């Protein structure tokens, strides 16, 4: 993540949208990109290297309203995203690109890095190589000493500038279709005689283009082009195309006064096309145009950008259909309305709450609606009337929290995503796991499209038909993952043959068709995937299948070695470990891949066969059995030993919040009947790892995985994917409500004796002593049922400062586990 100043709360009303308005200084651009969410015209964001200043904007007060009147006003888009302009799940995310070596999403707020352009496509907070970042625009107020066309250094290295001069930036979305187009408005300094704009066809985030071409219409200034680019997290390549039109804002620019193609350092005047004539390395390529300045006022030039994965003609058609009139304010207002309505479905009462937590909650919620992206109509692989979603980057990151959060307040989008995933399976054989720009990318663990589909169906099976989700096709897609081994399980599906025969992935068997690594972590994750399928089978009345996959979900025990001891801790015994095909165990140090790994192993996709784990240690994966934590407690020696192990993980610094397999660990005390300790640890996690600064996340956002993780913790909840149970703690707000537009219900969690949120999370009036649902005592202080959300219930929490609270005294007080009869 980048490091830089965080916008003040008063700036946050000016933080989101889809077009881009840039006001240039004499040279350079500013240090931070400031998208606008449709704030009043009199409010602007002025950014300089010293920080962010804004016009004054009134903020809602607790005394004027119980809830936040405009949830979108509390979003800080500088936390963990590309900081670009978009609408919910939009394909195009226009934003500033910089040359930071660590800018995985394309942007870094650190002012030491240079701006290289404003590109159209981005993913949200990813690892790996820089994805997308296609079709950059870059304005020139002057070029070289003589300010001549030929002196403009059009290459990325030649044009890049530090963000030293003030830049005011506004961004403005259109709502007729969120996917394919963008409006930029470049306002040039007074006295600019030759305002110019570069259109860069070839420079994506990886400089990977081949087969590129560009054409320019010298009469209209329209620039079209496209190229083939590399996927950022896999072996595939994709084509993308663009169409750019220009128009003066408040005046007629006429035809470009100068124009030319560039393929190299400088443009060639009066040329109108450029094309790669050989396959292999391609020099940078694009167009440069000069426009007439406005003789009667400020020179502001609008650029309408269409994008397509199909063709340049379709990119033009998209732009013409969706932004026919270049209306900036209209489209910005429409985007603001979308964000306000969507984010406002979850309302919090800010009374007695630090505004930082309100901003953190809505900023986190915002990021859960960036990915996957809606590419409907832009699938280059086959024709279909079904929705097409892309930018699954990756399901391994998002299935735990992002989709369960979507289930609480946005089931319509959830259903469209599920339909799109089913359609991909029907054409490609297996559900998508990691995917970008229509290209399959590397699988990290299991087939985690399974828990996503199961999460939807377990909760919405009664509404599946109305939401156009076919139950039979959904179940067949799950069975394809569970039963059929693909030609390459690096890119889709699972290594199912040996999984079905041995019940684990052995360390010493080499099988053609994919990577023979991550054997232990894949075993644990395959087991959970099968559990989620068992839950769908039960809903469908497929009793035999339900039992079969529930039994297979117990295979995690096949890699549990009860004889392994943590180094120097003889009372912490038993860990997930690699196993040979003959049943004998190999040994992996429990610290391997941890924060304190003595060998500093990375455990990414380049791990060796003997590593056995992916982005997590044996310590972490030995706690990952979300469907049967009771069995895990039994394997670890009972409640006391289980609690001792959890305390050790936290107190000795082995809790790794940067990777998703750790996300449920703070809540695991619930299963040992110590929910007060879960509350402490989850609140310590927020205090230590999350805030609203530009580096206010543990690592990157992983396509909204970290945003949804934080949002659940702040809501006092943690999900159990593909079940009807949600773990319960205390929200950071005296009241939080979830409005569901499909169920037409509003569910409210209200805390009695709420007295704010202690800074370090270790004490205070934050522990749940008792729970009532619709006025009746509930069986548990540790979890609630999905029925409370389908019914639109009032959930009342009695809070205390006593950390020694329990789940309750009844036999159904503990959260369910498979081995103790839960989920039946």
Q: Give the spatial strand order of the biggest sheet.
A: 3-2-8-1-9-18-13-12-11-16
- Gyration radius (Cα, Å) is 27 Å
Major pleated sheet: 10 strands, mixed
Question: What is the overall pLDDT average?
Answer: 87
Count of separate DSSP helical elements: 18
| Oligomeric state, counting identical vs distinct chains | single chain
The number of strands is: 33
Approximately how much beta-strand content do the residues carry? 15-25%
Helix content: 10-25%
Q: Kindly, what is the distance between the CA atoms of the first and last residues, rounded to a whole number of angstroms?
A: 43 Å
CATH architecture of the domain at 12-42 and 79-332: Distorted Sandwich
Pfam families: Glyco_hydro_92 (PF07971), Glyco_hydro_92N (PF17678)
Organism: Ganoderma sinense ZZ0214-1
GO molecular function: carbohydrate binding; peptide-N4-(N-acetyl-beta-glucosaminyl)asparagine amidase activity
Domain Glycosyl hydrolase family: 314-800
Describe the structure in your own words.
The protein has 824 residues and is an alpha+beta fold. The protein has a domain at 12-42 and 79-332: Distorted Sandwich (Beta-galactosidase, Chain A, domain 5), CATH 2.70.98. The chain is 23% helix and 20% strand. The strands form eight sheets. Strands 3-2-8-1-9-18-13-12-11-16 form a ten-stranded mixed sheet.
